[in-house]
Write a structure and sequence with these properties.
Radius of gyration: 21 Å
Helix content: 40-55%
Membrane topology: Multi-pass membrane protein
Protein name: Derlin
Subcellular location: Endoplasmic reticulum membrane
Pfam families: DER1 (PF04511)
CATH class of one domain: Mainly Alpha
Function: May be involved in the degradation of misfolded endoplasmic reticulum (ER) luminal proteins.
Length: 256
């Protein structure tokens, strides 16, 4: 339990939900139909089943896929949450997962008619991981290769095991991750645009953004100061801040 609570919060929660839900369903203790994405059931009157927006990301494939899907989900999501520079602020990785989920549900669910999107989410996370760790090696079963080829190796395996329809659903995760990368990095950096995907202050507070602490990351140690609760220079709910936020105490030169 100590190791579990010491793990990154979003990754450990998502992995635990996926592992437990998969074991319950394949063990016959939970009906598969209770978690799948199905719009008529989600907006059913008078009792809408809103949880299906989330539970459709918590089911792996059967048999050995429970082990492999859970392993890939944990490895690449925790690697991003702990070590990626693009998720340096509290709650950034949570917003990233929410963005991927919305795009996947819209494309794989709304357009392609899919019902379970766990592997699409894993592929999106693996794609972002491969973009942040281009010099690393990845192991896929007994084969070792540059991590940049990891998403394509996962798609190839899906094609062999599940066929073209499974690949079409899974590739929506790659589309979602690439769209996130474009909107938050490529367009602002090279296109002169603005990044509109920022973490609201309320989400930052959920992840301890209002408390000073020391954040140990894979590439160093970040000392984060608590956000001021009032006064000028505080950030708005959408990440905008005043240029006067870094002012000092205004001491007069030559004073005591």
């Amino acid at each position: 339990m100590d190791a579990y609570w010491a793990a990154p919060p979003v990754s450990r929660t998502l992995t635990a939900l996926t592992a437990v839900t998969s074991c319950l369903i394949y063990g016959g203790l939970l009906d598969y139909r209770q978690i799948i994405f199905h719009l008529p059931w989600i907006f059913k009157f008078p009792w809408p089943e809103i949880w299906r927006f989330f539970s459709c990301f918590w089911l792996t494939g059967p048999q050995l896929s429970i082990l492999f899907d859970t392993y890939f989900l944990w490895t690449y999501s925790s690697g991003l949450e702990k070590e990626s520079g693009r998720f340096s602020q509290p709650g950034d990785f949570f917003i990233y997962i929410i963005f991927l989920g919305l795009v996947i549900v819209t494309t794989a669910g709304g357009i392609l008619g899919g019902s379970i999107f766990t592997q699409a989410l894993i592929l999106g996370i693996a794609y972002t991981y491969s973009q942040d760790n281009k010099s690393k090696k990845a192991s896929f079963f007994i084969i070792s290769f540059n991590v940049m080829w990891l998403p394509w190796a996962m798609l190839l395996m899906t094609l062999i095991v599940g066929g073209p329809n499974a690949v079409m659903n899974q590739v929506t995760g790659l589309v979602a991750a690439h769209l996130y990368d474009f909107l938050t990095r490529l367009w602002p950096t090279f296109g002169g645009g603005k990044n509109y995907i920022s973490t609201p202050n309320i989400v930052k507070r959920w992840f301890g953004g209002d408390r000073p602490n020391i954040q140990v990351r894979g590439y160093g140690t970040a000392y984060r100061q608590a956000a001021p609760s009032s006064g000028r220079g505080t950030s708005s709910g959408f990440g905008f801040s005043s240029p006067w936020g870094a002012r000092g105490q205004g001491r007069r030169l030559g004073g005591g």
